[in-house]
Amino acid sequence: MYDMKGISRCQTLLGTFVQIDIEADADDRLLLSASDAAFNAIHEVQDELSFHDANSALSLVNSSAHLAPVPVSRMFWDLLSWCLCLSKDSDGLFDVSVAPALLNDGRLPNHWPANLRSGNHESIVMNNGTVYFEQAMALDFGGVAKGMAVDFAIQAIKEALSADLVQATVNAGGDIRMYDCHQQVVGVVNRCQNVEMLHMQQVAVASSAAYYDNGVSAIYHPKAMKARKMDHTVSVFASNCQLADALTKVAVLDLNHSVLNDRGAQVVLS
Fold this sequence. Notes:
By secondary structure, the protein is of the alpha+beta class. It contains seven helices and 14 strands. It has helices at 28-49, 57-64, 74-89, 99-104, 145-161, 241-253, 258-262, and strands spanning 5-13, 16-24, 70-71, 124-127, 130-133, 165-172, 175-178, 185-189, 195-199, 204-208, 216-220, 227-229, 234-238, 266-269. Helix 1 packs antiparallel against helix 5 (145-161) and helix 5 packs antiparallel against helix 6.
């Protein structure tokens, strides 16, 4: 048995700073190995699902799936299936096909002509490990991939350290998950641009704000295809970071939507 030790590391991934903090009854070698495994898990998500990388699997799907079905990985398949289910349950408020609106506003790189991208989540056909678009369209997992990557990182840490793990926190630009959230707090920048400390109500939290852009968020209403203005920072606590990340989009668009309660989320405005 080792005296409890810790490690804190930070890398630039997923378009933000990713910080990993681990405490465990383990030596430095095991702590470093666990943090490496966590960063590797995040790298895999970035390589697969990055909209900004023209060579990613997502970019291949966006450029080709309206021409013929495109085989996708298990990661891609599982995430897209999950997203389509949430789209249905949220009455379309969560929609990974809003990328054309972000393209038009210069929030995403324009790899393809935006005027040819008119489909929505109902235009996606998934069959036998392939994805096909009934209309030319573009997917963007920017509203959920960070959360998924954080969950993968925590899982990698658990597997690397097992019973020796005491605490772990992964923070990807405000998408946060903890191994043990009991009596923990998290700092969130509120509408006054001050850091407000919130008690962790579940193991994961994701926040959305627009204090840095004159109150205009990067969350688009799928029907209006316009960015939603925000008066508060919206934080969603959930059982995993993928869910928290995705549900921030729903909460910003409709704070009272039933899917928030149905999925066991807790919403805090600050």
